[in-house]
């Protein structure tokens, strides 16, 4: 480590976009390692609209690990944070910054403490996958700071232990989280199916129906589903494996009708298993249902579907338009039928392309 006068601070900043699943992850087979009961596929969003920016710093003057989220200090005591920190420290390498005259040996990382400041540019815990962007960014920035040699897929296995969906935010474009077979989770990783340029006509519009924090977290919701739903096993074993193959094919062929049908039916089935959970979980509200009707009516009136929709663990609608022209028409319809800040209970709209992970380091 540096000299006796150890006053230095070394820091890294990274920015990671969130991802939205088009074939959903819902249910774990291992709660600690966060191993899912089915594969899932997502699309990573444009970082300019929905992303987390995290600065991680290390200094010999820090006397314990600390973290701030949107300016407010939060506890790092949770098992998930600790798992990620432990896994990253175990893989840390020597770091040298010649300009600052700093030398950190890999064994020093066990003693040095970290300060982590994270900022979401969108509502936290409102069902817009904030934990996905947050944990992926934390792992990515710490991996840069500690000079890890692991590639993004190996880092995804660490991010997964922070929040399942986070593993898919380590890549841009279309990403699959392979559930894996091993009990130790070594093969439960994210892989990129296609990069962000592959199908770049797609435009994503998010209707923020409510920016309020959701009542049932994904973690506790999916735990209750696994224990009480009679439908979840059928979904995980019979339905999703077939949909994963079909979705991969639709993405490779840029087949929008198949993509839209699979994304919409999978979102609907995910909310059906939530309803089949006891006590039932209601993530969507009346506005969400009216948005579905509006899109379904439009798709049926055309020769082929124009827009896909999907809803995560909250009422906010994520819509994927087949091209820019359709996106403009969709926005027009939405603004007419669901004007923001009106009695429709809709807060705002976010419009973005798919995009790639950016290292602001
Ligand atoms: C509905 O990844 O937030 O968004 O692993 O317990 O942290 P934990 O859950 P989380 O669940 C996301 C659920 C979902 C579907 C998805 O992203 O695939």
UniProtKB/TrEMBL annotation:
- Where this protein primarily resides, as one coarse class? other
Q: Which domain of life is it from?
A: Eukaryota
Q: Which residues form the Diphosphomevalonate decarboxylase-like N-terminal domain?
A: 17-190
Q: What is its EC number?
A: 4.1.1.33
User: InterPro entries per the record?
Assistant: GHMP_kinase_C_sf, Mev_decarb, Mev_diP_decarb, MVD-like_N, Mvd1_C, Ribosomal_Su5_D2-typ_SF, Ribsml_uS5_D2-typ_fold_subgr
Question: Where does it localize?
Answer: Peroxisome
Gene Ontology CC: one annotated term: peroxisome
Q: Which residues form a coiled coil?
A: 85-112
Keywords, comma-separated and alphabetical: ATP-binding, Coiled coil, Isoprene biosynthesis, Kinase, Lipid biosynthesis, Lipid metabolism, Lyase, Nucleotide-binding, Peroxisome, Steroid biosynthesis, Steroid metabolism, Sterol biosynthesis, Sterol metabolism, Transferase
List this protein's GO terms for biological process.
isopentenyl diphosphate biosynthetic process, mevalonate pathway; sterol biosynthetic process
| Residue ranges occupied by any Mvd1 C-terminal domain in the UniProt entry | 204-361
Provide the function of this protein: Performs the first committed step in the biosynthesis of isoprene-containing compounds such as sterols and terpenoids.
Subunit details: Homodimer.
Tell me the protein family, please. Answer: Belongs to the diphosphomevalonate decarboxylase family.
Q: What is this protein called?
A: Diphosphomevalonate decarboxylase
Traced from the root, the source organism's taxonomic lineage reads: Eukaryota, Viridiplantae, Streptophyta, Embryophyta, Tracheophyta
